[in-house]
Amino acid sequence: MTSLSAAAEERSRCTIHTAAALIIGDEILNGKTVDTNSAYFAKFCFQLGINLKRVEIIQDDESEIIEAVRRMSTRYDFVVTSGGIGPTHDDITYQSIAKAFDLKLKLHDDALRRMKALSKPHPSQPNFSYDVPSPALEAKLRMIRLPIDPGRDEDSQVLFVDESLWVPINVVNGNIHILPGVPRLFEKLLDGLKPRLLPRVTDPEGKGIYRIMVSTPIAESAVAAYLTELAAKVERKGVKVGSYPRWGKGRNTVTLVGTDKEFMDSLIPEVEKNVDGVKVDREDEADHLSPEDKES
Question: How high is the pLDDT of residue 160?
Fold first, then answer.
């Protein structure tokens, strides 16, 4: 095993504290498609107590993909990419990530077996055959030519987390997890990956980070001074204080986010008093208390 392979192996086993998401696709940046995968990933990380530090959206551009995955793999424990692994010429994620880490693309036999078993030919391709060379076959095979490090166990680099899908999660450099951009597939594969991640997170039961929301009718400018003092006081406990305007709703939301539930619960009466608010489970839960619009 080379030193680079050994480093990748170490990344694949380290405790996961931080995460990042790389959303790849011209269609996101030109407004044709609305990205929902980053929001789903953010909730996923929150529930596992993983600190999502960064989300980037970039073009289907080889140089940008290479730069981004190299940087993210170095800086964050758990990285996902979304998009660019389809059958057409502009789906360049696999080849770009292979180039980023000096790997070759390999046709994955098990992925091909699963594709044959689970992927039905499109109605427009009634004569398609896996046994007859064709442009359509080459396009399909493009989706299962994966970046593989020959110095590492292949099973740890190609994960099949859902038996109903032929699509694998390709793990490169130990911590780059390549996922499809289609939201239904992205979500299903990410959820399927969760059992493999639980032993590596600091909250192995998956309880995640604790969040308290307090709904207040007071303008942000009026509570800003108190929230500044509160943030300084609770920082040593790893608690973050946030304030979020809700335009046109008559109420704003103050949040406390952290892992020390007992300490955070002890702050609720103080926060409610100082912002004239009430603890809620949903942001709109207390909207009926403020029928009139107020400054946010």
Answer: 97
Q: d(Cα 152, Cα 8) in Å, to the nearest integer?
A: 9
Instruction: Give the pLDDT score at 73.
Output: 98
Question: What residues of the chain score a pLDDT lower than 70?
Answer: 204-208, 290-296
Distance (Å, whole) CA 165 – CA 156: 18
CA atoms within 13 A on the CB side of 105: 16
CA neighbor of 97 nearest in space, from 66, 134, 136, 52: 66
**Total-model pTM:** 0.85
SS (H, E, C) 214-270: EEECCCHHHHHHHHHHHHHHHHHHCCEEEEECCCCCCCEEEEEEECCHHHHHHHHHH
| CB-based contact 241:271 (threshold 8 Å) | no
Q: What is the pLDDT of residue 295?
A: 44
Q: What's residue 206's pLDDT?
A: 60
- Please, what's the b/e burial string for 262-287 (b: 16 or more CB within 10 A of its CB; e: otherwise)? eebeebeeebbebbebbbbeebeebb
User: Tokens standing for 8?
Assistant: 């990748």
Q: Which of 40, 49, 98, 42 is nearest to 69 (CA)?
A: 98
The pLDDT value given to residue 296: 44
Question: Which residues are CB-contacts of 75 (< 8 A; sequence separation ≥ 6)?
Answer: 18, 20, 53, 54
CA angle 221, 223, 225 (to 5 degrees): 90
* Contact criterion met (CB below 8 Å) for 295 and 246: no
